Amino acid sequence: MKPYLFCPACGNQLEKGFIDGRDRMFCPSCTWVHYVNPLPVAVAYTLNKDGKLLLVRRGHEPALNEWALPGGFLEAGEEPHEGCLRELYEETSLCGEIDSLIGVYHREVEMYGSLLVIAYRVTVADDTIAINHELFEAGFYTQGLRPEVRIPLHRKIISDAALSGIIP
Ligand SMILES: [Zn+2]
Predict the structure, then answer these.
(1) E strand map for 5-155
(2) pTM higher than 0.85 for the full model?
């Protein structure tokens, strides 16, 4: 991630300073400070009524072409579980219901920096999928017949979900 060079509030050039325990960019003119916080992301570990797991093949960076769990960035003013179900719906047209929270995770990605990832177990009654432009394909898979998920965090979520409840 490229650092900001100019103040978004007044347009003055930013300077580097040691503020609240870290090096941060700040504006010497209006005292605006660039606090870099993680971006919240919701991920849906989604099961159909046969206990098969939804996996999607990503059609965009990061992790282009990798098999993954669906998910995306939360919008301002949105509850995390609402964002999770919205992202699931946008990517696959599936209407899910939240079953439980699997876990909350942190990771660094080059494209976005620091991410706070909230993973839910989601169930769907109707598993008819219609993917959007963000995906190449998507399907529900039984454990032995799944495409390989190589994204470390998604592997971790899948294993944590299996430990915390029903193994699909
Ligand atoms: Zn300023």
Answers:
(1) 15-19, 22-26, 33-34, 39-47, 53-58, 67-68, 71-73, 96-109, 113-124, 135-141
(2) yes
